Amino acid sequence: MSITIAGAGVAGLSCACELARAGFAVEVFETAPSLDENGCSRFAGGMLAPWCETESAEPEVLELGAMAMDWWAGLTQVTKAGTLVVAPARDSAEVSRFASRTSAHREADIDALEPALKGRFAKGLFFAQEAHLDPRRALSDLADACRDLGVVIHFGAAAPGPVDVDCRGIAAMDTLGDLRAVRGEMLMLRSRDVMLTRTVRMLHPRFPVYVVPRGDGVFMVGATMIESAGWGPITLRSMMELLGAAYALHPGFAEAEIIETGVGLRPAFPDNLPRMTEIDGTFYINGLYRHGYLLAPAMAQRLARRLLKEKRFDNHRQRRTA
Amino acid sequence: MQLYGTEITSPLLLGTAQYPSPAILGDAIRASGTEVITVSLRRETAAGDGGAFWQILKDLGCHILPNTAGCHSVQEAVTTARMARDLFKTNWIKLEVIGNPDTLHPDVFGLVEAAGILTGEGFEVFPYTTDDLSVAEQLIKAGCRVLMPWGAPIGSGQGLRTPDALRSMRAHFPGTTLIVDAGIGKPSHAAQAMELGFDAVLLNTAVAKAGNPALMAAAMARAVAAGRDAFRAQPIEPRDMAAPSTPVMGMASL
Predict the structure, then answer these.
(1) What is the pTM of this model?
(2) ipTM, 2 decimals?
(3) What single DSSP character describes residue B66?
(4) Which of A208, A268, B114, B250 could form a Cys-Cys staple with A289, CB 3.0–4.6 A?
């Protein structure tokens, strides 16, 4: 007997991994044909930035997210270079506001941290403890780790019946009444002119934007936050906002190539916090909102601890082989 | 206060954008006692429906005042207003036609034109305007029975930049419902608007972006109530010289 999981996004695979580590036999069912077709997890920023996130998130995000860096570092490449937060001169009040809402930062020596931004911003914050990863590589490495632990992942296949664990993200709106979609749009740039080594957030009262280096001159620029369940292509306005912010960060981005755009629907509950809910014998892990990679590990561990206490899953344990 | 025939008790109207979460938005609305909330249609309809978010707003039990935030032309604003009417089943529309993307200064020419079109279609228009009296006259002529002059640029939190102009506006339109919309940063700003005799204050960022939105919403509610009472109580006029507040006759001679 295996624990069955619906969904092979970052939530589903993190749960599979933690359950397998706890000794369960696990099967994952994913309706998409491959990891490359995954919606939300594929278009994530991949920032492991719990301190920055508390600017607008509840303290629980920091409590749950603090362990994510070490968790991911055991599975995939994590770049622990911190986060640099800057604002255009006329919006410098935003830096003070951001500083007052967050912790674990210091005034940034921008010239030393990112020489490419030398002289461009008068004031910035540095969150030295934060990190980032490449979500696509991380998801692929996580799937490999799951398989090494004996997890079976079925692609292009819905679960044959009710599952034990539901990690379908926004698709679970069909059952979770107060789950809603927050649309996010992103784009990928390739630049030969701009060198950045860490996540840079640019504050702006209307459209704050972050730029995450993915290596080889590729940068992810994100992300919009729109209360909508529309999955259509990125709009001109959103693209202009993202591109305008990238250009304001560094004019060298003007010559960058736009190599990809993407749209995902973040699943969120009204408090924008993740939840584990049990309905008719199925455990729903959902509501990871804009914190998928940051919060999935903690939620997966919470699930594993819970299922170890469930008598009905006692016969789902497999003998661990070395 | 009458808003197109609807009696509203609370002189505080709140926007619903930029809150950390819908749950905190709900807490703030409840703490404020507000009866009218504004909803931005433009972004939420990007490519589908904002159904879940709108449901949360509807469940708050307030009157919904849809707005045309972010519209830069008459055509955009009129189209957005029509969509809002379909979606929220209300003739109310907070009309914004933006003239400059950096200052979000209203395009008053487009505003008057759009107001005329919309009132002709049966809309009840709440125009976001400047404190210019001749523009206000044109809006009244276009059929507006509520005027919403700015206190300062949207989201700036600067408070009332031109209190004298706002005072003139109150004097010039004694029978029109006047609401200060935009620019409020602190409760003292909201109280000041009410002390000038305005009927209400509409704000969003000052509460949504506060560290504790619900607490700030409650503070704003107390401020507008204090300001309204102060106006009704007829404040004293300021003067240059001191006027002793204790009787000078019959002082004890020591």
Answers:
(1) 0.85
(2) 0.79
(3) E
(4) A268
